[in-house]
Amino acid sequence: MGLRLDIAMILMLFLLKSTGNVQASIFDVKQYGAKANADITQALTKAWKAACASTGQSKVVVPGGTYKLGAVPLEGPCKGPIELQVIGTLQAPEQQSGDSWVSFNHVDFFTLSGSGTFDGQGKIAWGQSECSKNKYCKQLPINIRFNFITNAIIRDITSLDSKEFHINVLGCKNVTFQHVTIKAPETSVNTDGIHIGRSTGIHIIDTNIGTGDDCVSLGDGSRDITVEKVNCGPGHGISIGSLGKFPNEEPVSGVKVIGCTLTNTMTGVRIKTWPASPTGSASDMHFEDIIMNNVGNPIIIDQVYCPWNQCQAKIPSRIKISNVSFINIRGTSKFQEAVKLVCSKGVPCEKVELRDIDLKYNGHDGSSTYHCINVKPTISGKQNPPACTVKA
Ligand SMILES: *[C@@H]1O[C@H](CO)[C@@H](O)[C@H](O)[C@H]1NC(C)=O
Ligand SMILES: *[C@@H]1O[C@H](CO)[C@@H](O)[C@H](O)[C@H]1NC(C)=O
Known about the structure:
Blueprint: H1 2-19, E1 25-28, H2 41-53, E2 58-62, E3 66-68, E4 72-75, E5 82-86, E6 89-91, E7 100-105, E8 108-113, E9 117-119, H3 123-128, E10 142-147, E11 150-155, E12 158-160, E13 167-170, E14 173-178, E15 181-183, E16 194-197, E17 199-210, E18 216-218, E19 222-232, E20 238-243, E21 252-258, E22 261-263, E23 267-273, E24 280-295, E25 297-302, E26 319-333, E27 337-342, E28 350-361, E29 369-373, E30 378-384
Parallel strand pairs: 1-2, 2-5, 3-6, 4-7, 5-8, 6-9, 7-10, 8-11, 9-12, 10-13, 11-14, 12-15, 13-16, 14-17, 15-17, 16-18, 17-19, 18-20, 19-21, 19-22, 20-23, 21-24, 22-24, 23-25, 24-26, 25-27, 26-28, 27-29, 28-30
The structure holds 2-acetamido-2-deoxy-beta-D-glucopyranose (2 copies).
C-alpha cells in the first residue's frame, strides 16, 4: 500500500515537473478591470506591471473574447520569468500614429503564447502608406515589437493585418518563434512578416506567413539566424537585406534557411544590397531543401537593388557577399529568371555554391534562365536551368 502510494507520488511529481510552469502566479486582465469589447490598455498595463514586479514565475492572461487595445509598451526587466498568454483577440485602433502597437522591451526569460490574435486593423493605413514610392516614408505602427528581449519563446499566436511590419526583432538574443501565424492580404503595403535586425540566435520554426511584403527579412547585424519549416506566401519571399542603405550597418553572418516552402511569392530566397553603399559584409548564408511553387524569381543575389531609382545605380555596392550555398532548391518559377546572381562589380561574391537546382519555368514563351554576374559559383549536381548561361 505504502509503496504504491510512494510510486503514485513520484509519478505525480514527475508529471508536475515535466509540465514546467507549476508555480506560475496568474495575473488575469479581468482582475484588473478588463471587459470584453472594451479597451483594455490600462488593465493589461496594470496586470503586466504586477506580474513583472512579482518574484518567481508569473503569467499574464488575456482570456477568450475580443478586446480593444491602444499602443502599449510592456517593459522589463522583470523580477522573474514572465509569460503573456493571449487567448482572445486584441484589436488595434484603426487610426494610430507612432511606430508600434504592442512592444516588449528589456525582458529576460519571456514567453508569449496562446491561440490568440493581434489584429492590427491595417486596411485604412495601407491606403495612406507612401512606402511604395518613398524610401524614407513615414513609419506606421508595427504590430508587435521585441526590443532587447533575451531567452524568449513566442508560440502559437497570430498576427493579422498589421499596419506595417507584423513583427520586429531588435537587439534580441536567443528568441524562438514557433508555430506562429502571420496573415495580411497580398496587396497590403510594407507588411513584412518577421523582420530581424541587430540580433543573435533567432530561430523561426513551423511558422506560416502570408503577407504583402517579405515573409522574413533580415537587416544588418543579424547573426546566427535559423528559418526552418516555414511556409511562405503570398508575399515577397525570404530576404536578407536590403543592406547598405545607411552608414554604420553591422555585418550579417550565419543564416540558415532550411526545409521551407514558398508559394506564389514574388521572389524566393534573396540577398539584396544597395549600390553606392558604405563597406559592409554578409557571409555564411545557407539555403537548403526549399520548394518553390510558382515563385516569381526563386533564387536572387541582387547587388544593384535600387527600387524607384532612389540611388546612384552606377556606383557599385561595397557590401562583400561570401560563403553562400543554395542546395536542393526545386519547383517552378513564374518568371523566366529562375536564378539571378548579380554581384557587385566592386566586390564580387566569393565562395558561392549551387548544388541540385531544379526550377522549371511555368510560362510557355521559352525556358528559365540562370544569370551569374561578377560571381564564379561552384556548381554540382542537377542544374536546371543550365548553370550560368547568362554572364553579362
Ligand atoms: C534560450 O532561451 C530558452 C527559452 O527561455 C531557454 O530555455 C534556454 O535555456 C536559453 N538558452 C540559453 C543558451 O541561454
Ligand atoms: C560557411 O558558412 C557556414 C554556415 O552557413 C559555416 O558553418 C561555415 O563555417 C562557413 N565557412 C567558412 C569557410 O567560413
